[in-house]
Design goal:
Elements (H helix, E strand, L loop, with lengths): L2 H8 L1 H20 L2 H23 L1 H8 L7 H34 L4 H30 L11 H12 L1
Helix pairs in contact: 1-3, 1-4, 2-3, 2-6, 3-5, 5-6
Length: 164
């Protein structure tokens, strides 16, 4: 497995990990379950690590797809720019998860406040990483990129015009 394959596989982890971590953390706050809160922190931490791996392998993925005919350089640039914001958000989320874990194990009075902040950061991180994933998908998934000449929607429109 090369870096391109790793990038394609691991990119889904930060997307699903951040939202799943947010749901589990929200549930933990509602039920006041310390064990569930710790599990949520581990989920978000794992998601954060996945974002780091995904970002680190992004350059190899870029080099592989930029040589493919029909791939728009502008889409790669948009995806790369969004990835920087998502990466910083997820690193922040990972740091908050580590702080939250430490506070949970020490039974600090600040544990609930950090958990609430972590939940909010997790939701923001999910938005950023989901947008990044959407932009990455537009690079090669023609079905979500209406500007691509080979997309199914454009081919359908061409067929309709030709039949007129």
């Amino acid at each position: 497995m090369d870096q391109l394959h790793l990038h394609l596989i691991i990119t889904h982890l930060p997307i699903f990990g951040s939202i799943l971590g947010a749901f589990v953390l929200g549930y933990a706050l509602l039920t006041k379950s310390h064990h569930t809160k710790k599990a949520a922190y581990f989920l978000t931490l794992f998601s954060s690590l996945g974002a780091c791996v995904s970002y680190a392998t992004g350059e190899a993925a870029e080099e592989a797809v930029e040589k493919i005919p029909g791939v728009a350089e502008s889409l790669i640039g948009q995806h790369e720019s969004a990835a920087v914001y998502a990466l910083f958000a997820l690193i922040g989320l990972g740091l908050l998860a580590l702080i939250g874990l430490g506070l949970s194990y020490s039974k600090s009075k600040y544990s609930k406040s950090v958990a609430t902040i972590t939940l909010l950061v997790s939701l923001v991180s999910f938005g950023l990483v989901a947008w990044t994933g959407y932009l990455g998908g537009k690079i090669r998934h023609t079905e979500i990129n209406p500007g691509n000449l080979n997309s199914p929607s454009n081919n359908h429109e061409k067929e309709e015009k030709e039949s007129e």
